[in-house]
Structures are given as structure tokens and as C-alpha cells.
Amino acid sequence: MRSFASDNNSGVHQQIMDALVAANDGHALGYGDDIWTQAAEVDVKSAFSEDAEVLFVFNGTGSNVVALQLMTRSYGSIICAETAHIYVDECGAPVKMCGAQIRPVATPDGKLTPELIRPYLVGFGDQHHSQPSAIYLSQSTELGTIYTADELKAITALAHQYGMYVHMDGARIANACAALNLTLKQMVTDCGIDTVTFGGTKNGMMMGECVVVLRNELKPAARFVRKQSAQLASKMRYLSCQFSAYLKDDLWLKNAEHANAMAANLEQGFKCIEGAVLTQELQTNQIFIKLPRTLVDVMLQHCFFYFWDEPNNEVRFVTSFDTEENDINEFLRLLYQEAAKLGLLIDKKREDR
Fold first, then answer.
1. Nearest-angstrom CA–CA distance, 284 and 273
2. 3-class SS letters over 26-90
């Protein structure tokens, strides 16, 4: 049984692995001057914008750092949700690399809104205050929620009104597109996003991310910032070739649709558990739920998953492109078995599942 700890734990899709093997063909020019990178740049531009600047990098933190450095100066500030990856999970890398201050905003669901952002749009031109420079969004968010296209347009319109930029962390953008039935262009370019991380590591790729720069004035510095940020790969083909395979025949979307569907199936299974309460609406492939602590403790002996808010018995389950029905069925069988022992199984007919 595969665990539900994280989609980072999943394997590599066979089509991605085949692309890596195909790219491992003799010698090729380094630092992106190879046929695989050139082809991948064309593929990514086709998905977002023909005028985009495409930068393949090693990882998600590196991609956020590269994008945010393009948008800020050391006296600037970056507005984000208090649950944002750059604030919680990147060990201060954006602050160290950009020098900018991060301004976290409390949100009930991981999503910023113009109303939540406006109180932080102060101090412009005042030498005593960090200058609001960028807004960071995650799509989908760290709580598995998603911004609609209209919500994104409202935020980008506000940011641009104040001369600010918007960066979208798209580590799970495929899951959001699948949920909203939107293309990458509709989700990003058409909504006025200035830079986006096009992620694939959580959705079938082996490694690497892609920074897509859409705002014209940010493009000239982009490749210099990538190099200075230690994100320029010498053997670039092994990063870039994956994106061509990822985009071919909408593999990125099919993988995400499957992961989302598996999460929906798993979520249904928790309805038989006494005291199970969803803490966020299920919209993508992440389930946030409160469960009785006694049940959590015993289930952790069968299958690893993470606490999200341990004092409140809130845990997170994440499905992946390679999650199978058998994984869910086996987990639910064990869940019902242990819940029955603890007197927490509501529907006794499902005890034998």
C-alpha cells in the first residue's frame, strides 16, 4: 500500500522516465544549448505564451527565489498567506536571497483576497518602510484550496494598480487546472500573473521546476538571476526533457485529474468515522481532516501520513498520480477495522471492507 503522506513521495511516470533515457544519448552542449532544452522551451511557451522567458531550475524553493528576486529589491516586501510555502517551509531562503521582508497575512483557507491584501498596501514612498513589491500566491494553496480565475484577476489588478508584481507558486498547478477545467494559459497568462513556477515533481516528474516569466520588464535579468542563484544546471537536458514529455498529450493534466479523483474517493471513506471533520473543502488532491487521536495513532502504525495541526488532531492525506484504488481500499479496510475496535465506526456494514 502506497502511503498518503505526500505527492513528493510518488515515483516517476514511465513516460517521463522514457524521456530521460532518450535524452541520455551521448554528449550534448551544456547549460541549455541542447536540442532537448530548445524543444522544451517551445513546448512551455506554447502552453503559456509565445513571448515567455522559460527558465528550468533544480527545485521549487529555487524557482520561487529566482522569480521573487526579479520582482523585489532588498528594501521591498512580499505579501503572502501565513501558510505560504515561502514563509513556512523554505528556511528563510527568499528573505536571504531577496533581502525583502515577508508580510504574512492570516487567512481561513490559505487564499489571499484583495480585502485581506489592502491593509498591507501602505508606506509607498516612505523611506522608513519596506516597499510593497510583490504578492505571492500558491495554486493550489498549501491547504489544497484553489483560486478561481476571477479571484486571480482581482488580485493581479490590485497589484498592478500599485505597481506591484504577482508570483504564482504552481507546484500543484496541474491539480488546480484539473479541478477548474482550465488550461495553463487560462489559469496564468490570461489572469495577469507576472511569473509562475510550473511544477511537475509532485505530479510524475523526477526533478526540476520551470520558472515562466511573463512580464516583459522582468525578462532581461532572468537568466542572470538564475545563474547567481545557483539554479543553472550544466546538464540541462535532464531537467528540460521531462517537460516535453509532461506536456505531451496533456500528461500533466491526466496525472492531476487522477490524483484529484483518488482524493475524492478517499475522502468519501472518512464519512464512516465518528468524529471525522474536514477542516478545508476538498478541491484538489489534499485532504485536511480532524480525526480522533486514538485512531490517528493506531493508523500511523499501518501507513505514514503527516500531522498538520497536532494539538487539534488535524492530519493531511495527499494522493498522487500513481495512487491506485487498491491503495485506498486497503487503507480504508484498515481504517474501518481499527475504528470498529475503538467504537468509532458509524456504518457497521462497512466494517468488513
1. 22
2. CCCCCCCCCHHHHHHHHHHHHHCCCCCEEEEECCHHHHHHHHHHHHCCCCEEEEEECCCHHHHCC
Distance CA 177, CA 300 (A): 32
CA–CA separation, 176 vs 141, rounded Å?
Answer: 9
Q: Are 65 and 98 in contact (CB under 8 A)?
A: yes
Question: How many other C-beta atoms are found inside a 10 Å radius of the C-beta of residue 81?
Answer: 24
User: Cell numbers at residue 263, please?
Assistant: 482524493
Q: Provide the 3-class DSSP secondary structure of residue 206.
A: coil
pLDDT tens, residue by residue, 97-132: 999 999 999 999 999 999 999 999 999 999 999 999
Which sequence spans correspond to the domains of the chain?
13-250, 252-350
Q: Which residues contact 95 (CB under 8 A, 6 or more apart)?
A: 101, 102
Longest dimension (CA), the chain: 68
Tens-place pLDDT, residues 138-150: 999 999 999 999 9
Rounded Cα distance between 73 and 131, Å, is 9
Alpha carbon separation from 115 to 120, 133, 177, 332 (Å, rounded)? 10, 17, 25, 41
- For residue 113, give the 3-state DSSP assignment: coil
CA 32/CA 236 separation, integer angstroms: 5
Q: Give me the amino acid identity at 216.
A: N
**What is the number of helices (H) and of strands (E) in the chain?**
14, 11
Q: Is 252-350 in CATH node 3.40.50.620? A: no
**Strand 165-170 versus strand 195-199 pairing type:** parallel
Q: Which CATH architecture has domain 13-250?
A: 3-Layer(aba) Sandwich (3.40)
Encode pLDDT of 292-313 as tens digits: 999 999 999 999 999 999 999 9
pLDDT tens for residues 223-252?
Answer: 999 999 999 999 999 999 999 999 999 999
Residues in the chain: 353
